[in-house]
Amino acid sequence: MQMKHFKHFSLLLIFLYTTAFGQEVTAVDSPVDYVSTLVGSLSKPSLSTGNTYPAIARPWGMNFWSPQTGKMGDGWMYTYDADKIRGFKQTHQPSPWMNDYGQFALMPVTGSLKFKENDRASWFSHKAEIATPYYYSVYLADHDVTTEITPTERAARFRITFPKTDSASIVIDAFDKGSYIKILPNENKIIGYSTKNSGGVPDNFKNYFVLEFDKPFEHVGIFNGDAYQANVLESNGDHVGAVIGFKTKTGEQVNVKVASSFISSEQAQLNLKELGDKDFDVLKTEGKAIWNKAMSRVAVGGGNIDQMRTFYSNLYRTLLFPRMFFEYDAQGNVVHYSPYNGKVLPGYMFTDTGFWDTFRCLFPFLNLVYPEMNVKMQEGLINAYKESGWLPEWASPGLRNIMVGNNSASVVADAYIKGLRGYDIETLYEALVHGANNAGPITAVGRAGIDYYKKIGYVPYDVKINENVARSLEYAYDDFAIYQLAKKLNKPKKEIALYRERSLNYKNLFDKETGLMRGKNQDGKFQKPFNPFKWGDAFTEGNSWHYTWSVFHDVQGLIDLMGGKTAFVTKMDSVFQLPPVFDDSYYGGVIHEIREMQIANMGNYAHGNQPIQHMIYLYNYAGEPWKAQYWIRETMNRMYQATPDGYCGDEDNGQTSAWYVFSALGFYPVAPATDEYVLGTPLFKEAKVILPSGKEIVLHATNNGQENRYIQELKVNGTPYTKNFLKHDDLIKGAVLDFNMGNTPNKQRGTQESDFPYSLSREK
Fold it and tell me: Which SUPFAM superfamilies does the entry link to (predicted)?
């Protein structure tokens, strides 16, 4: 490890000292200790501050666990302002809007029989709650019980501390919409399954679970709906569960091993072996070490304590999705239950991610820092294509009909262009071409409106295909991603030329009158009337002011359409200068994304949703990088905190978090499927990215601070560097970046055409 590059920056010690802006942390030795899993949990349908829950998990784990404050089936399973816990749920939920599948819950109780969720619920306090990625503990006041959880990828251990009582019980709730449960008293075991889901599953979907207890049962019973029967051992129905109980001494701990499988009950028993004979504290220690190992690939120092907590809480969220949806059979082979055709098949499978969100920077982050994980994910995409006939655009666990675009093209192309290998790229390319030229069985798969797009270069406004401008702009970028991959794979020149030509289709929807993207009818005339502040309609969860910038691959082309750099910069400035006005008539009310823009006090900039998150970086393409530096730091400082209301909108499966992590390092992948990262402004005085190869990207930011957000000078490997971008290939060879920061813009640096990042229109 090249410690010589770290001036006063040790990964082994923590040094704290007081500055004008609070305690400064120069280095950390246990990054997971800075994580709050509660960030973003103070949310509700009308206002998202993350829409997260405290996921108790291993990185990318198949199963997560969470305390459950919401009612059965409520997507908001845990909210920070709740005061009662109803159970501890195994969850696979990627977001409250997508909801959950295969869920079931445990709940310890004392006193009289309580199995209904309202009856068994207990008051709790955050003062008696410990929430970390690898360990959770809470005191259930009504039952005088402390519950602790520590997970592995497919299993978990519970440690439940009871008071002295003759009526200690544990409720196992298999939830409604079809469930089964069986008590095996001679083995201190319970087995069962849950079929509860929110869509995207085959008809034979089940999540099989097994629980093993270290204390014999003294009484048992089954509930079916609202009816309870003592001494019954087995039941199935719409909503079944079990209650087992025993006498306990003061402080007696009951240990529960639990695992599940999407394949079979026997496989669930195999998955239980992840726990082995390790006791609770050993697994907890192992979990902490695994999180620290994963998170230590990115180390930062020289920020205040709140910045460190915010950074590592965001890094935690980047390592949760897409989740593993594969298991290991008795011979140790990787197998999976297919959420597409219901068969058990060999190979990897991952799920619970929406590419409309995560193509932007979550997957590029994996490609840079955790490429070995994305190799497996690419293998999973191959299997998804073979099993469904399509690449998923939003998988949870199978195909879901939500959002727009064909952004699997970006996810596949960026990985290969960034050097990932070891999987069948030809099959993936075949899948991209298939998806790019055909409408799928649902509008979120393949390309809705593709016949129009191929014929006239856009999806028309007047053909009853909603969000048509958003679709057209994303299709054009996705065609660019295919163009880039086709070149890399030496495809026929005619094929390469086709996708290059189609990637310029964004020009068809640019309205010179307003300088914005606008819906266009089949006859080539722009839609009337046109309100650029109208959310939805021709756009997806945004308006024209947000989506006009969705020309990731050809910013120079957009600059040219707008009349040059000065007009382009003025247009971008306007986003922040406009009041947060909006037209919500398409939705018939204010959706939460609108409200989050309105209250942010950043004009019409809507960082709480994905379409505009890259926009700030575009100042680099027009010769005014200092404006990017100003607004990036503003966004990091104002829109992110390590608090329960710490996000400015939906966190969205690591995307909004990855924006912060990249931006805090000082660069960002504006155009995935290119080999460039666009410069921003580093947040910390020191940072290091340790790559799987052992090479390191080391960043120093001299004079960095609250006011000193402007890059005065940058040296790369000791050589002065004026460009507004960094090359991926240069970074992965190992690089030292020395920033000199100041409190006033350097208006000479990064202003020449040769300093600007890649644009298709500038391609030679």
Answer: Six-hairpin glycosidases
Q: How far apart are CA 610 and CA 204, in angstroms?
A: 35
DSSP per position, 256-310: EEEEEESS-HHHHHHHGGGSTT--HHHHHHHHHHHHHHHHTTEEEESEEHHHHHH
Largest CA distance in the chain: 81
Does 611 sit behind a cis peptide bond, omega within 30 degrees of 0 on the bond before it?
no
> Would you state the structure tokens that stand for residue 480, as one six-digit string?
């660019």
Closest CA to 86 of 112, 106, 57, 101: 106
CB 657, CB 651: distance < 8 Å: yes
Contact 97, 75 (CB under 8 A): yes
Query: Has residue 234 got a pLDDT over 60?
Result: yes
How much of the chain, in percent, has pLDDT values that exceed 70? 97
Question: Angle 503-507-510 (CA atoms, 0-180°, nearest 5)?
Answer: 145
Q: Is 129 helix (H, G, I), strand (E, B) or coil?
A: strand
User: Are 106 and 171 spatial neighbours (Cβ–Cβ below 8 Å)?
Assistant: yes
How far apart CA 231 and CA 644 sit, in angstroms, is 43
- Cα distances (angstroms) measured from residue 405 to each of 100, 400, 439, 469, 542: 23, 13, 11, 10, 15
pLDDT one-digit tens code per residue, 662-677:
999 999 999 999 999 9
Predicted confidence at residue 1, as pLDDT, reads 36
760: left (phi over 0), alpha (psi -120 to 50) or beta: alpha
Quote the mean pLDDT of the chain.
96
- 365 alpha carbon, distance to own chain's centre: 11
Q: What is the dihedral of CA 283, 289, 291, 297, to 10 degrees?
A: -160
Pairing of strands 227-230, 353-354: unpaired
236: phi then psi, degrees, rounded to nearest 5: -135, 160
Q: Phi/psi of residue 124, each to 5°?
A: -150, 165
